[in-house]
Amino acid sequence: MKAQKNSKFSETLLLQGHIIDSLTFSKVLDRIMERGGRFSIDEIHVGQRKNERSRALLQVGAGTQGRLDELLKELRNLGAEVLEKEDVRLAPAPKDGVFPEGFYATTNLETWVRLKGRWVRVRTEQMDAGIRVNRARSSAETVRFGGVKRGDLFVIGHHGVKVVPLERPRDAALFEFMTSDASTEKPKTVFIRQIADAIRQTRRQSPPGKVLVVAGPAVVHTGAHKDLAWLIERGFVQVLFAGNALAAHDLEADLFGTSLGLSLTSGAVTHGGHEHHLRAINLIRRVGSIREAVKRRKVRGGIMAACVRKKIPFVLAGSIRDDGPLPEVLTDVLEAQRAMRRELEGVQVAIMLATTLHSVAVGNLLPARVRTICVDMNPSSVTKLSDRGTWQSIGLVTDVGYFLRQLREDLTR
Amino acid sequence: MPRVLMCPPSHYAIRYEINPWMKITHTVNPAAARRQWDALSSLLRRLGVSVTLIPQRKGSPDMVFTANAGIARGRTFIPSHFRYRERQAESAAFTRFFKRKGYRVVDAAKGLYFEGEGDLLSYRDMLWGGFRYRSELSAHEKVSAALGKRLVSLELAQPRFYHLDTCFFPLDERTILYYPGAFDAYGRRVIRRFAENPVAVGKADAHRFACNAYRVGRKVVLNEVSRALKRRLHALGYQAAETPTSEFVKAGGSVKCLLLKL
Fold first, then answer.
1. Residue A288: HSE in the Cβ half-sphere, 13 Å Cα cutoff
2. In this structure, are A295 and A396 located in the same domain?
C-alpha cells in the first residue's frame, strides 16, 4: 500500500462500517490519489462475519491546507470521520528561566502547533528550546531557558504539535545523500566540488542565501587562514562565528607570521614565539578593537581583516581558557548565543571548520533545513555534531587546510 | 397483510425547489393530484394492502411523500432528519403520529441527515443505503447498526435521482431493478455483486420513475412505463399495475415515495 506520512498538512480519518462490501474503502483511497493527496493506513480491521463492521484509520495528507480541506470535504461525504485533533496544552512558566514541568522540547525541524483549532507555524525553529505561545496573537515561537519569563505560556506534552520532516531535495546533488556518516573513505575532491556548487547556488538565489562559517584555530595553524580570507573577500561567506583563539592566531599570523609561535612558512619555532599571540591580543586591546586595528591598518591581512573590510558580521564567543580575551569577544555565553541567533537569519549553508564544541553549539541553533557541512581531521568531531542532533549535517574527515585550498580552487573555476 | 402509511394531498404543491424536478413555475393541479392519489390508494387497497393515513401538515407540501418520514420496523420507528429546512417540520409531525400509535421512537440518526425509506431499502437480509444528495452514509451506518443489519452503501451520482428509491427497486428476493445511470462505477459493481438478478432499467423508464415502485404479490404498482419494461416484468413473473403519478413526478416522486412500509 502506498504510504506517505510526510505531507505538510494531514489529518487522521476514521472509516467504519461496511466499507469493504460497499467498496467505500477502495473509493476513499482512489479519491485521495485522484486528487493528488497522500495516505497511509495506520490501522485496519476487516469484519469477518456478515454483520460485523470493518474499521480503518488512515492519515490523509495534501500539499496545501486548502487542498486538504477540499479532499476532506469529499471524504466526509463518503462517511469518513475526521478525528478531531487536540489543541496544544499550555502551562505557565513557574519563574524566569524555568520551563513548566513537562514542557515540549523542540527539534530543529519545522514545527506547527494547533491553537484554537488552527495550525500555526512556530517561529525560529531551533532544537532544545520550549515553544512559547501568545494566545491573543495566535502565534508561537521557540524560546530557550534564558528567554523564559515567569507566567509565559509554554506547550506541554505532545498533543497538538506537528513536526514536518525534511524533504529530500530532488536534484541528485550533494545533499541528496544527506548523511552524517563520517568516513575517511569518501571521495573528497568530488565532495568539495559539490560544496562549492552548493555555495554558488545559494548565492545565486534571489534574495541570495547566506553562508555561515564556524571556524576553529586549526584553520590558522594549517595556514588556511589565507584561503578563508579569500573566500570572505570574494563574497562567498556572509557570517563568521568563532572563538577568541581563531581571531587571536589570525591576528598573530598577520602581525608576526606565526601561529602559536610556529612560523607559518618554515614551521620553525621562533624566538619568543609563544608570546606572539599574547602580544597580538595586547596590541588589539590597546587599540580598542579588531575593527579599529584594521581601520588603522595595524592589521592588514587575514580572516578578521577581511571580515572588517567586507563588513561581514562576526561573533566571537569566549571560553574559560581564553587569553585576553580580544575586545570583541563576548564572554557572557547567553549574550553570545543571542548574538549568534541574530546573525542566523537567512543562513542556508553552514560550514563548520575544525571545531568541535563550537560546531555543536551552532548546530543546536540551526533549523534543520540549513545545509550543514562539518570538516574535521577527527572523525569523532564530525560524528559528535550529528550525535548531538544536527543529523542533517554532512561530515568530511579531512585536513581543514586541504579542504579550504580545494574549495578556493573550485570556487575560482 | 402488507401495511403502508400514506398522506392524502390536502396541501400538496410546489412551493420551493430542492431537487431538479421541482420548478415553482410548474404548478400542480390540486384536483388532478388528488385524483391520482386516490386512484393509487384505492388500487393498493384493492390489492389487499392496508393503508393507514396521516393528515398533511399545512406548511409541509412534501409530506405526501411519506417514504421519507423514517423507517418503521415492527413497533419501532426511526425518524428522519431532513437535509433541507423546507422539509424539516415534517419530522415532528411524523414522530408524534408514530408515538401516538404506540411505536417506540429510536432516534438512531441523531445529528445526521437521514431521509428514511427514501434512501434505505431492504433486500434479503441486508439494507441498501443511498447517500450524497440527501442522506449521509454515516446515518445509514447508525440506522443499520440499530436494526442489526448489514449495510451496503451506494453513492448516488445524478441529482435527478436524489433518493435511492428513485433509481433502485428490490423487486423480490432475487431481482433488483435499477437505473445504472444513477450510480457511479463503484455503485454499479456493488449492485451487480450483491443482487442475484440485477435488471437494468432504461433512461426513459427511469425518468418516468419506473424504479419508484411497490410490489404486492405478483403485481408491481408503478407509474406508466414502457411496454418493454412491462414485458420484462412479465418475464420475471409479474404484472405491471400502472397508475398515473404525473402530478407527483413534478415534485420528484412517484408510487414508492407516496408510501411508507409499516
1. 5
2. yes
Chain-chain contact of B190 with A21 (C-beta, under 8 angstroms): yes
**Domain identity same for A152 and A23:** no
Q: By residue range, what is the domain housing residue B194?
A: 3-261
Strand order from edge to edge, sheet including A89-92:
A89-92, A153-156, A130-134, A139-143, A118-123, A110-115, A161-164
Instruction: Give the chain A residue nearest B143 (alpha carbons).
Output: A17
Q: Report yes or no: A243 and A291 within 8 Å, Cβ to Cβ.
A: no
Q: What's the pLDDT score for residue B152?
A: 92
Instruction: Find out whether the peptide bond into A169 is cis, omega within 30 degrees of 0.
Output: no
Answer whether residue A330 shows pLDDT above 60: yes
Q: Which of B137, B148, B189 sits opposite A78 (nearest CB)?
A: B137
Domain that holds residue A299: 174-412
A24 contacts in chain B (CB < 8 Å) = 137, 153
Gap from A374 CA to chain B (nearest CA, Å): 55
Q: What is the pLDDT of residue A43?
A: 85
Domain count, chain A: 3
Tally the domains of chain B.
1
Query: A1 lies in a domain?
Result: no
Q: Decide: A168 and A95 in contact? Cβ < 8 Å.
A: no
CB of A26 within 8 Å of a chain B CB? The answer is yes
Q: How many CB atoms lie within 10 A of CB B239?
A: 11
User: Residues A49-84, buried b or exposed e (16+ Cβ, 10 A)?
Assistant: eeeebbebbbbbbbeeeebbeebbebbeebbbeeee
Would you say the ipTM is above 0.85?
A: no
A180 confidence band (pLDDT: 50, 70, 90): very low
Residue from B186, B193, B194 whose CB has the most chain A CBs within 10 Å, to mutate = B186
- State how far the Cα of A10 lies from the Cα of A3, in Å rounded to an integer: 13
Same domain for A152 and A107: yes
Nearest to B141 among A23, A26, A79 (CB): A79
CB–CB of A62/A68 below 8 Å?
Answer: yes
Average pLDDT over residues A292-300: 94
Q: Does residue B163 have an active-site annotation?
A: yes
Per residue in B12-21, pLDDT (tens digit) is 999 999 999 9
Predicted pLDDT at A335: 93
> For A86-95, A118-127, A385-394, B137-146, which range has the lowest pLDDT when averaged over its residues?
A385-394
CA angle, A4 then A6 then A11, to 5°: 85
